[in-house]
């Protein structure tokens, strides 16, 4: 491909993306293909010679499109929001064009410095503790690829701290114990496994009727483990669980963590972004007690995957756990302490210039747009809850302070599952299920960038029409 071809094809691809996003509503929300269908529509072997670009682009429509579940569809009520926006897409494109590896400051100073500033801007925009700012005494933030990586990174920092750094030299971690509720994300258990803590030393703290952690139970379990000769070291508090958007009480959990010397990680991957709207800042209540925190602009802020914000109040443990300095990465800037090398703040070495998509989004008016979107989603969810309350076949099974409503049919699990399947089969909307206290529930996650009242109303009418 010549530079001239690149210009021409690039413009065509931008047109293709714009047309896709403008027309996304015409597609069935969930992909209809069966496993293997997509592969079967492609040649089994790579092409022997170059193909015309037009054929390649055409296959986006012919081959790829049938296998897409349309996360950007305004009637996508499944999983969690994963919305994109135009400036963020362009930011990602610019990052691809620059093609830099930002593992160290010296490998591309702008990649590091724009990122550090974006983390500080977001600390301000979300109203997070000042201790998370890069300009604070010991805190700072970094963009991670995902909340799962942020959680693992937090566990590794806490593990380093709990062992006084001995873990870097085959120190004993076999007595370390971690805590969260059963409602916490699967990445918590996965992170504990990867970090060598293991599922056996993951304590599931009982939750209350609202699916939030019971601090009295946490305190009891910590005491029990200590009495048993174990070392409680890490607790994960959810601010917005994936299953039902439950909020663990941070002030109480934080007080226990402080008293007991546990690292407190706050997982707000899905709901932390709500704090962009000042009236939802309550999602941060108690955050000043957190040792680490993460939230995902790639869920609810129009910044396409991957963009997770990870903050620590004390970077010493993080750098202690993850800094390794081979000869070929030494630089005067890093050794003087004047520059941040983000490779020491994450699992991989290499990193893309992800801050660009955040920077573009914030500067092109995306914060006001995200605030308006968040407010609209929350209002629509409350409106939906009122409609649901009027149909006595349904019940609401969890608190719904933001943009997720969990409902079930009083007729039971089979009926609720059948309703979800029948609604999804129409292609008009997409819902996912969860199980809350042993009962199946339909999750209605209102989070599309272009989701309006009419989509929520139609989604609700669809559920009603297939409910028994
Ligand atoms: C979505 C989610 C995660 C995982 O996010 P990734 O960025 O995909 O790793 C973790 N925790 C919570 C509460 C989530 O909602």
Describe, in plain words, how this protein is organized in 3D.
With 468 residues, this protein is of the alpha/beta class. Helix content is 42%, strand content 12%. The strands form 2 sheets. It has a 7-stranded mixed sheet with strand order 1-7-6-5-4-2-3, sandwiched between helices. Helix 7 links the parallel strand 2 and strand 3. It is globular, with a radius of gyration of 23 Å. The termini are far apart. The model has no long low-confidence stretch (mean pLDDT 96). The site of pyridoxal-5'-phosphate has 15 residues, from helix 6.
In DSSP terms (H or I, runs of 4 or more residues), the helix count works out at 15
The total beta strand count reads 11
Ligand inventory reads: pyridoxal-5'-phosphate
Fourth-level CATH superfamily of the domain at 100-352: Type I PLP-dependent aspartate aminotransferase-like (Major domain)
Strand order of the largest sheet: 1-7-6-5-4-2-3
Radius of gyration from the CA trace? 23 Å
CATH class of the domain at 100-352: Alpha Beta
What's the shape?
globular
Instruction: Estimate percent helicity.
Output: 40-55%
Taken in chain order, the helices and strands follow as: HHHHHEHEHEHEHEEHEHHHEEHEEH
Keywords:
single chain, alpha/beta, Aspartate Aminotransferase, domain 2, 15 helices
How does the SSE layout of this entry go?
Layout: H1 3-23, H2 37-40, H3 53-64, H4 86-98, H5 109-126, E1 140-144, H6 147-162, E2 176-180, H7 186-194, E3 202-204, H8 215-227, E4 231-238, H9 250-260, E5 263-267, E6 292-295, H10 297-300, E7 308-312, H11 315-322, H12 332-335, H13 355-389, E8 394-396, E9 404-409, H14 413-425, E10 432-436, E11 439-445, H15 453-466
Parallel strand pairs: 2-3, 2-4, 4-5, 5-6
Antiparallel strand pairs: 1-7, 6-7, 8-9, 9-11, 10-11
Helix pairs in contact: 4-13, 5-13, 6-7, 6-11, 8-9, 13-15
